[in-house]
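Appendix B. Chain record.
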Amino acid sequence: MRPIRHHLAALGLALAAGLGCRAASAAPDQPLSPEMRAIEVTDHRGERVDTGLRFVDERGESVALADFFDGERPVALTLNYYRCRVVCSVQLNGLADALAEVDWEPGEDFRLVTLSIDPHETPADARKKRGSIADAVGKGDDIDWAFLTGSELEIRALASQVGIAYAYDAEQDQYAHPGVVVFLTPDGRVSRYVYGLTYDPLDVKLGLYEAADGKIGGPVEQLYLSCFSYDATIGQYGPFAMGIMRLGGGLTALLLGGVMFFLWRRERRQATLREGSVVAVGDHEGPGRTDSRDGVAAPGKVEAV
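Structure tokens predicted for this chain:
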């Protein structure tokens, strides 16, 4: 598929301000370095990742990628590195801020995985970064967010499978990489990309919703989320005309159903009142009334001569 290059302005500014990247001092018309040109995302939506790849989590335990895919919950994946001084922290904190406003729970409704692209980083580095990010989410150490490290071969394999290209700049001792969250289906297929260093909570929620094939959230929430469509050119979501019409139709049906139920209840109530009135009148006609079934005068009633 055609590569989608996202030389994010925010990424460039962060590199210039905090990392001393050569691009900071370059003239505006100077060509980008090979490292910066390597930053790209190739759309691999629909392709399956190799869940047999193995990494090491923040506790130092060996884990397989398959451990995060249970066939029921979608997975949100980011590729960063933990000693990154600006960009990765901004991105991970941006994702944490968005997740703090999403009412779905990591571990219960979806899985969260961050993989370091630096093969020299250790579980101790992952543990330190995880601690700072967990504080931002407000869940403490209980949050289900795996921070992984691994070998160069397996890191590059997963990055290639999800379409993320990055490069190491030896002169600056840093990695150039795009800011993107990859959403994967419960069976390990790439579903959506959401780009940026900060994220709209709705975009994150929609990415998870679509990755779960609409099997997350309540019925009303699912109807609402179906009103947004994914724009692959910008990696964000926007209102979808047919979805909005579907929502309008659903609300109209609910409104009409409510009105019809109200009218039915009112008619039932009035019918009950009418039946009660007839019985009450019959009981108060008094003695001497004529039995209409046989024309015989009821006791106490004098017939006219």
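Further analysis of this model is presented in Appendix C.
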